[in-house]
Each structure stands twice: as structure tokens, then as C-alpha cells.
Design brief:
about 250 residues; mainly alpha; Rhomboid-like fold; two-stranded antiparallel ribbon; 4 strands
């Protein structure tokens, strides 16, 4: 008789396991260095608005390994653990890590676009000035030294961190590859097909993004990760990389 001594940790696919480790290491390092008063890694590795002096193109990649607090990293890593290993088995490790990083980059680019088209509104809503003052008047007042901060300070205050964009891409792939697999979602007491769960998540993120609900969350970045995922999955399906014979259902 043979016994399976494989541990729970080792049962997680290697790339997913290493992503979990890296994210938690970066979160712990950020906490330790910040509490020691040495450096704030979010300022270096978090994604900044491209107009700010603290923006660095490398942040398009590094931001997805940073997290704001415990609940932020817990939810993202729980989702990664739930869906990542299964997707890695279907895609293979190389395609899986390419997909994960690509979704994270897609989310970052969408977030930059959102900032590009919304920064003036954000500025106007966060600066107390004369009633009816235009954005141009506010900017002129800031540039002339009539504010406690500069425009560069404002640009640098636009920052986002987290693996959510990549994780939403993972969720999207799960819904496309296993559309009829049933899931239980709190608070519903009945199973729901994965394709409907993913569609609902996308619509909820779109609603929150357009309505400004939970404005501290990068809803459009989540949608950017899903958009990148759709493009990649459809391309792989078209060129035969994914088919009913090799994992596409």
C-alpha cells in the first residue's frame, strides 16, 4: 500500500508557490523597513502616475508584488492560491507566468490611462480653493506657491500597489477555461457557474469604477488585468495553443 506524503504546501504548483512566497516576503520587508524608519518601498516600487518625478518604468512590473496591508495581501494571495495552481497545470509553468505578468502589466497600463484622463478631476476634488475655481486656476495657484504642495507632490501622490490586476486575470482565465465549473459564493447558498461569477465580478468592478464607489481601490486596473487576460486567452485559443484537447473547455 502506498501513502501520499506530499504536503499541502508542496501540492501547490511551483510558479504559484513562488509567487506567494515573493509577495509575502515583499510585504514583510515593506513593513519592517518602514517601521525601522529606513525606507518606504511603496514609494520606490509602487506604481506612480507617469507625470510624477517618482515614476519609474520598472514600477509597471514591481507594483504587483507590493501590498497596502494584511487584508490586501491576504485576499489577493488567497485568490491566487485558489485558482493559480489549476491554471498553471493547464497552461504549463512558462505560459502561466507569462500570462500572470502580462495581466499585471495590462492592469498597470490601464491605471496609467485612467490617471491621465482623471487627474484634473482628482486634483479639483482634493484641493480647497475659491468656489467655482477652474482646474487651471488651481494649478496656477499651486505653481505660484499659494499651496502647501507642488504639482509634482500631487502627481507623486497618485500611486497604486497590489497583485489584484494579475489575480483578476487569473480569475478571468479560470472562467474562460472552466466556464461550467460550479462555485459557491458567499452569501448565495447555491452553486454558480464560473462564467457567471467572472462576468458578475467584471460588471461590479465596472460599476464601482464609473460610480467612484470605493475610490481607494483601483477598479479599472482590475478590469485592465481582465482585459489583458481576454486578449491572451482568445489569441491562444485562435492559434491552437489552447483547445479542447489540451485544456480549453
Amino acid at each position: 500500500m502506498q501513502y501520499n506524503n506530499r504536503s499541502f504546501w508542496n501540492s501547490i504548483m511551483p510558479v504559484t508557490r513562488h509567487l506567494l512566497i515573493i509577495n509575502f516576503i515583499m510585504w514583510l520587508a515593506t513593513l519592517a523597513l518602514r517601521q525601522a524608519g529606513l525606507i518606504d518601498l511603496d514609494r520606490w516600487l509602487g506604481l506612480h502616475f507617469w507625470k510624477g518625478s517618482e515614476f519609474n518604468p520598472a514600477q509597471l512590473f514591481t507594483y504587483m508584488f507590493m501590498h497596502a496591508d494584511f487584508m490586501h495581501i491576504f485576499v489577493n494571495m488567497f485568490m491566487l492560491w485558489m485558482f493559480g495552481s489549476l491554471l498553471e497545470r493547464v497552461l504549463g509553468s512558462k505560459r502561466y507566468i507569462f500570462y500572470y505578468i502580462s495581466c499585471g502589466l495590462g492592469a498597470a497600463l490601464v491605471q496609467e490611462l485612467v490617471w491621465q484622463f482623471s487627474w484634473q478631476g482628482i486634483l479639483a476634488s482634493h484641493v480647497s480653493g475659491p468656489a467655482g475655481a477652474t482646474v487651471t486656476e488651481i494649478i496656477n495657484a499651486i505653481n505660484s506657491g499659494h499651496a502647501a504642495f507642488s504639482m509634482d507632490d500631487f502627481y507623486n501622490s497618485l500611486i497604486t500597489v497590489g497583485a489584484s490586476g494579475a489575480v483578476f486575470g487569473i480569475l478571468l482565465a479560470f472562467g474562460m477555461l472552466f466556464p461550467n465549473m460550479t462555485m459557491y459564493v458567499i452569501p448565495f447558498p447555491f452553486p454558480i457557474k464560473a462564467k457567471w461569477v467572472v462576468l458578475a465580478d467584471g460588471l461590479i468592478e465596472l460599476f464601482f469604477g464609473l460610480s467612484g464607489t470605493m475610490s481607494n481601490v483601483a477598479h479599472f486596473a482590475h478590469l485592465g488585468g481582465m482585459l489583458a487576460g481576454i486578449i491572451i486567452i482568445l489569441y491562444w485559443k485562435h492559434d491552437g495553443t489552447l483547445s479542447r484537447g489540451n485544456g480549453f473547455y
